Each structure stands twice: as C-alpha cells, then as structure tokens.
Amino acid sequence: MSDDYEIKVDADGDGSWDAHTVEADGHGGYHVYVDQNHDGRADFVGHDTDGDGLLESGDYDNDFDGRFESHNVDTTGDGWYDEQYTDRDGDGKWDEASADTTGDGNWDVTVQDNNYNNVFETVHYENNETNPYASA
Known about the structure:
The chain is built from no helices and nine strands. The chain has 136 residues and is mainly β.
C-alpha cells in the first residue's frame, strides 16, 4: 500500500466508509479491495487507474460466491458509477446493463436478456420522464 495514497470507499452502499486495502498497480493507479462479508476474500475490487482518488471502475461479487458478476464504470469522472454490467446466470456474458443518465444515483434505464440467449429483449425505465416511449 502506498503511504501517500488515500481513498474512501463505500462498497456496500450503506453510507459509511468500508475498511479496505490498497495495492499499487505499477502504472500510477491503484486497486482497492473490500471484504464485505468478512470471510477473508475480497468481494469488491475498485480500480483507480490514474491515482486521483476516484474509482474509474469496480467489480462486485454480489452473492459472495467467489465470482465477480457485476462490473460498474464511472464514465464521467465524477467518482460515481453511471453504468453497470451484470452476468446474472454465470456464463461469463453480460445479461443486464444499466445506466444512470441523469447523475442522480439511480439507474434510469436497464436492459435485460431474460431468456439468456444473448438478445436484450426487456427494457426498464426508472420513470416516464426517461422513457422515450411513454405517452404524455
């Protein structure tokens, strides 16, 4: 861990900072590890690729089975994830993608492959304001 690198992480989203370990990646960035269920294995791995103290992406083992099924990305550089990709059936392919297009911390649109046939056939919108097909 670098003595001069500091970051605060709330991996579980409960509003409090989580205990974590940090590892330099050798290229100016850092990996941040959080063991959310205290079993000795990291359940969250965050990636600060430029060492600015904001995570550009993070991987989650949501059900603590040792497999990281969700990948979140901060595309705006503000330190908040605005895209999420999830493999719900464990086949290594994304079955769900969500986006926060308004920056309010909620997923505004989610597309899902509920048949697990590599076709995203279901679209969910947070509300009618973000749904281009909603009637006024």
